[in-house]
Here is the input.
Amino acid sequence: MEIRNIHLVYFSATYTTRKIVREIARAFGGNVTEHDVTCGLPFGELNLGGEGNLLIAGAPVYAGRLPVRAARAFAMLRGTQTPAIAVSVYGNRDYDDALVETQDIIEAHGFKTVAAAAFIGRHCIFPKVAPGRPDADDMAKAAGFGADCARLLAGTDDAAAMPRLAVKGNRPYKQGGASTFSPAGTEETCSRCMTCASRCPMEAIPADKPWLTDGDKCIACGRCVVVCPERSRSFGGEAYRTFESKFVSAFSARREPETFFPENH
Here is the structure.
């Protein structure tokens, strides 16, 4: 089958997932449309059905699950047994049930998952874990995965006829949870440019004191840390440093991307 239109639907707070799904899409060479749902859901159901269409659904992993907004956005997509690729990006600990959750949501709304992959990015809360990732080797593997997906679809006339893809994960999914840590800056180092407040997916940064963070709203996605031009914002505090030491020790061993294809591929 010929893929002419590739739709990237992604949640990407630190822009890592976006980088990965863009690289995967490059292998197809068709028209690429991006739907960034990080800061807001689509206005309504998004119909991506039709001959020649492909969905690439990507999101980071938070506590072993999809971000709530990503799950809601994926549930707003509509296909007609449209081929899809599910992508999870995680911070070198584990992706747990996020990939199978992505598969289940998109398949419940008319898509056929033909391939899936889990890639590694720098941890958004503990940046000493997987620093510099995705690195050149990761990006080469993303490109290779995209090329394999393109060949797979080029070699079939009917994606819907493929056997259901088996990916790693559990049903029922693990219990999700919110982080107890939130990034913040200081009044002295904050320039009040409002970049962090305007780009926060959860509107968790008060306009009158943009060096602070509303912990009840914050999902610890790390976006404010990466977009702050003054490098004022970071995770910190005594409890954070204590937990960080244990986390870095436990999860610094390099993990590699994992890919999933139909059994007969």
About this structure: The beta strands are 5-10, 31-36, 46-47, 53-60, 77-78, 82-90, 111-120, 258-260. The chain has seven helices and eight strands.
